[in-house]
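Input record (Table S2, row 177):
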Amino acid sequence: MPKQRESRRRLKGSATPAPPGAKFERAAGVVGMGLMGTSISACLLAAGHSLQCVEIDPSKLRTARKRLLKVLEQARSQGLIAVSPSLLMERVTISADFSVLKGAAIVVESTIEDPAVKCRVINEIEEVVSRTTLIGSNTSAIPVSDLQRDARHPERILGLHWAEPKVRRRARAAMSA
Ligand SMILES: NC(=O)c1ccc[n+]([C@@H]2O[C@H](COP(=O)([O-])OP(=O)(O)OC[C@H]3O[C@@H](n4cnc5c(N)ncnc54)[C@H](O)[C@@H]3O)[C@@H](O)[C@H]2O)c1
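Output record (nicotinamide-adenine-dinucleotide complex):
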């Protein structure tokens, strides 16, 4: 089977979530529902996670569900996900309140490329999540060690670099320090 078709077939398989009503043990979180955060959210949903998202800008917050649904519909029309986008959207909570992240097994921070903002956001995430929650920071160029410096538990902070558009290109780099 050609490489591209094989990778598409595997993605379809991995995108088949548990049946409606199933309990999702591994909730994921995303902070910052901009360009990257929205399509990272689509990837996490397609992988079968329930999702809790934070967006503090009121106008972005108002449109976040619609933008996420659009990314999922594009992925569905390209044959990349097998499940109805509206069904996937039932597993999504989007709020301005960080407390929605409580219970997430992994949280991906995808706010603006400013170390001070990212460090503050990581502190806010750490206030509400459990000791074992992994925290990924989606950054273009900020050294992970800078983001770990003020963290309560630096060892669980990962640097991530997702490739856009994420639902089609499944590549991402992860850095621990
Ligand atoms: N755009 C790309 O192709 C690309 C690729 C790889 C990595 N990145 C990195 O990903 C990150 C996000 O990029 P983007 O293009 O999605 O930016 P964006 O401006 O589209 O989105 C950032 C979002 O974060 C929100 N935000 C800001 N402060 C917040 C806070 N304190 N709490 C919650 N939400 C907050 C903003 O309102 C906005 O919706 C950046 O660090 C960027 O460098 C971007």
